[in-house]
Amino acid sequence: MTSDDRRRQILSLLSSQGIVHVATLSQTFGVSTVTIRTDLSELEYGGKLKRIHGGAVSVKELVVPSLPKRMRRNTRAKDAIGHAAAGLVTDGETILVGSGSTTLAFVNALNPKTNLSIITDEPGIINYVTQRMPNVTPICTGGILGCGYHYYGPLLAASLANVHVDKVFLGADGFERRLGFLAERKVTAEAKKEFMRHGNRTVILMDATKVGASRFFVPFAMPGEIDLIIMDSDPHGIVATSVRAAGGRTHVIEVCT
Question: How far is CA 188 from the centre of its chain?
């Protein structure tokens, strides 16, 4: 059986079962767990499934909506978060901005600034800046374009090798007490981690609906690794409690909407 045949059968099993496990697939196909993990990684990169611990689940059940759809949700909260974050940026600065609808709202709030350079892995942000922000220089990272939503992989890291900025602005697809800040996909989480390596300060921009996200999302940072978290509100003080438990430098700002 070729790898393509095996992957088609994995997708067929996933379609009928909703979830597959590495150990079971290894026995079913008579190959090593390393081979199965490679299969799952390749299928995830192609947007066919989502990796979880020990296996994979269907993207139909768990995928985060597309960027245009997300931009239409919680717009008031995202705009408030974006404007608060924009106050941290000065004219002439170079910043790193990760993918997401809240980070796009933040970029929009930067419109009055001049001579900014924005480095991002989000094609939507690149297009937005190119079309609407003549005073801003958009800089796109390298990498593989994953399902049209952001760049990932070794080329992303290579393109940032000589980059170091003061501030990194990232979105989050979720937050849970035990797991910290979460991303929809493994490759997205890896991209966010890479961005964090290239800045003095990391700022998370996240609306209240992201607190208590699916356990299948992938962690990329714990509260103690973040400098500032800007939210519209913190439900039941969950994020602030986690920050206090972690100790260190992290601050939470709740903005009025």
Answer: 5
Task: Report residue 218 as tokens.
Answer: 């992938």
pLDDT at 174 over 60: yes
Q: Is residue 81 helix, strand or coil?
A: helix
Q: Please tell me whether residue 179 adopts helix, strand or coil conformation.
A: coil
Domain residue limits, the chain? 3-62, 67-254
Q: What is the H or E stretch that residue 202 is in?
A: strand 199-205
Rounded Cα distance, 181 and 178, in Å: 9
- Residue partners of 86: CB distance under 8 A and separation at least 6: 106, 109, 110, 113
CATH 3.30.70.260 describes domain 3-62: no
Beta carbons within 10 angstroms of residue 112's beta carbon: 8
CATH class of 67-254: alpha beta
List alpha helices for the chain, DSSP H. Answer: 3-17, 22-29, 33-45, 59-62, 67-71, 75-86, 101-109, 123-132, 154-159, 186-196, 238-246
Please give the radius of gyration of the chain, using alpha carbons only, rounded to the nearest integer: 19
pLDDT tens string 99-122: 888 999 999 999 999 999 999 998
